[in-house]
Automatic annotation (TrEMBL):
Superkingdom to which the source organism belongs: Eukaryota
SMART domains xrefs: RING (SM00184), WD40 (SM00320)
Listed PROSITE patterns: ZF_RING_2
Enzyme Commission code(s) on record: 2.3.2.27
Protein source organism: Artemia franciscana (Brine shrimp)
Transmembrane segments: none
The protein's name: RING-type E3 ubiquitin transferase
GO molecular function, one term: zinc ion binding
Length: 532
């Protein structure tokens, strides 16, 4: 109400002291015109509203005295009053009364306050933040976000279905490629090859997730601590101050990678977790350093600098403080964590001065009757048997170049992989089984694999959920992982890959069996499912 509209009211409210008492004063009903208080001007018989020249309102007149935030004209913090007349934000005074219960009082005058006394005020001259448009915009934004979530969910479902279809198509293309190769080698008819694929199985394996590890590439190796951590070997990203090589931990439950942890200045050639003390992580590199890292604290606890680049390493399964190291010159030595110098506890190859080829793989064997060390070099596969004296037995010597060694401890079986050559154009996988008499291991089956090996990928051997010994290897001709049954060497599964496989690793997590395949940039994780 403007000043012109209120002037008749002021005239009718005046009290003329000189007038006679029989002049009746006109009484008007009280009208709430503004919450800005009227100020009595001394020396005048009228009450006038504070003018625009008065001092500006204090913070107490423009903000809620509970949260000290400006009042608003709409929304949950709109201005409201109690029966005593004091003003607050509506949501603030409601929370105040709810927290005090029956004993609630006004925060300012301490008069009794009840929730039903709260009255929202509809005012124009109140100095309050007008957030009506903001509230409307926020409601629209929330509605848009909900629609976006629904759209993203539908997109994710469609993408999952698309990937399933693409996987099925790639499996069929892989199957066609393998059938053509089988016929080209004269290994049987299409019917015989189809029988290998269509045989009834109780278990199947499918892609669980692809995890990006390093967009710059360079990933090479996998390791597992037996509980809940996968580790990948990779170079540092280009935007990092540290330009060497290190690892990235990945939780085997959530499959979420952690931060990069630097270890060596040059590429890591081998790494493994302590089979008993899971927090101890062994790594060797061409920078000539052997390092033990506490993975729980990310702290280096052991370091030795040797004379030659290192190519392989393995823990001793009989003593958790000892480990073996192989060098680029063919030397193999035993070291102990309790001795912090570079002197080896024992030099395994001290009686073999003529061997100069790098040691590409090591695996300690602990059996009731025989204990020793498996060692794979470029053209020789040997077994060092530990008795009163170390005895060396050459188990396999070939003109082809050996690539990797894999040992399956529960069955004491060994897998040896060779590179393609002019004499044997395909990768060959030799499976050795334990032998009680004579030689400790004897060949059981030979499997023909891919016709090329660009990544020099590491193969693996493990027991599938059905208890069958299985060989896993990268099949680069079809860009997939091939799984062979060691009982006869039949191809059982083909698993499509995103960017190839440099290393394979079988591991358990939450009682489920998984197979990890690390490419140069990402990790593909496959999960075994029981068929119903």
């Amino acid at each position: 109400m403007s000043n012109e509209e209120r002037s008749p009211l002021r005239q009718r409210r005046r009290v003329d002291t000189d007038a006679t008492s029989d002049i009746e004063q006109v009484q008007e009903p009280e009208v709430f015109t503004s919450i800005i208080p009227f100020v009595a001007d001394e020396g005048k018989d009228t009450i006038e509203q504070g003018s625009e020249h008065d001092e500006p309102d204090s913070d107490e007149e423009t903000v809620c005295s509970i949260c000290f935030e400006p009042w608003t004209t709409a929304g949950s913090h709109r201005v409201a009053c109690l029966a005593c007349g004091h003003l607050y934000g509506k949501k603030c005074i409601e929370k105040w009364i709810a927290s005090a219960g029956k004993n609630a009082v006004c925060p300012q005058c301490k008069s009794k306050a009840r929730k039903q006394d709260i009255r929202p005020l509809f005012v124009r001259n109140l100095k309050a933040l007008d957030n009506t448009e903001l509230e409307r915009t926020q409601q629209t934004l929330e509605k848009t976000r909900e629609e976006l979530r629904k759209t993203e969910l539908a997109h994710a479902n469609a993408l999952a279905l698309l990937r399933t279809r693409e996987s099925e198509i790639q499996k069929l293309n892989t199957r066609i490629t393998l059938l053509k190769e089988s016929l080209g080698r004269g290994e049987g008819s299409i019917v015989d090859a189809n029988n290998e694929f269509d045989a009834a199985k109780r278990w199947d394996i499918t892609l669980e997730r692809n995890v990006e590890v390093n967009k710059d590439g360079g990933c090479r190796l996998l390791a597992y601590d037996g509980q809940r951590i996968l580790v990948t070997s990779q170079p540092a990203s280009q935007n990092r101050l540290f330009k060497g090589y290190g690892i990235r931990k990945i939780c085997s439950v959530t499959l979420v990678p952690s931060k990069f942890h630097p270890l060596h200045e040059k590429p890591i050639t081998d790494m493994a977790f302590n089979p008993e003390k899971y927090d101890q992580f062994l790594s060797v590199s061409t920078d000539k350093y052997v390092k033990i890292t506490d993975m729980q604290r990310n702290v280096e606890v052991f370091k030795v600098l040797l004379d030659y680049p290192l190519t392989s390493a393995a823990w001793c399964t009989e003593n958790s403080n000892q480990f073996y190291v192989g060098t680029s010159l063919g030397h193999i030595s035993l070291y102990d964590l309790r001795k912090l110098d570079k002197e080896a506890v024992e030099k395994i190859t001290q009686n073999e001065p003529t061997i100069t080829s790098p040691v590409y793989g090591l695996a300690h064997v602990s059996k009731a009757k025989r204990s020793g060390l498996l060692a794979l070099r470029l053209k020789q596969f040997s077994f060092y048997e530990f008795q009163e004296e170390t005895k060396t037995q050459c188990l396999l010597s070939d003109d082809d170049l050996f690539n990797c060694l894999s040992y399956e401890p529960s069955t004491h079986s060994v897998l040896i992989t060779t590179k393609p050559s002019s004499k044997h154009p395909n990768v060959r996988h030799f499976v050795y089984s334990p032998n009680e008499d004579g030689a400790p291991f004897s060949p059981s089956v030979t499997i023909s694999g891919s016709s090329k090996m660009r990544f020099l990928s590491q193969s693996t051997m493990f027991l599938n959920p059905g208890g069958k010994l299985t060989v896993g290897s990268s099949l680069e001709t079809a860009n997939c992982v091939a799984l062979w049954d060691c009982n006869g060497g039949k191809l059982s599964y083909t698993l499509p890959l995103r960017d190839g496989a440099c290393d394979l690793l079988s591991f358990y997590s939450n009682n489920d069996l998984f197979l990890g395949a690390i490419g140069e940039q990402s990790l593909s994780v496959f999960k075994w499912h029981e068929l119903t």
